[in-house]
Write a structure and sequence with these properties.
- By secondary structure, this protein is mostly helical.
- The chain has one domain.
- It contains six helices and no strands.
- The radius of gyration is 16 Å and the shape is elongated.
- It starts with a helix and ends with a helix.
Length: 83
């Protein structure tokens, strides 16, 4: 019984973290094959504002990034820029 409860707790925590991670629209394109932390690192941005400026004005895919909200880009930087 204890093992079942422990397993349920672990599974619920895992599903919560996966749901939070999938919340960002960035992760639709930036998958394991095209990892988001690597892209953030290559941009050279030191802050969320610099990253936002890079994506909107200097990125090769700047037209795609203009459709994303500022909040989503800042969240992505905060979440994945430190990895």
């Amino acid at each position: 019984m204890v093992r079942v409860v422990s397993l349920l707790i672990v599974l619920s925590m895992l599903s919560f973290s996966l749901a939070f991670a999938q919340d960002l629209p960035c992760l639709r394109c930036h998958t394991q094959a095209n990892p988001l932390p690597d892209k953030i690192k290559k941009s050279g941005a030191k802050s969320a504002s610099e990253f936002l400026d890079f994506l909107r004005n200097k990125s090769p895919k700047k037209a795609l990034h203009k459709a994303m909200s500022d909040e989503d880009i800042r969240k992505a930087f905060e979440q994945y820029g430190k990895k």
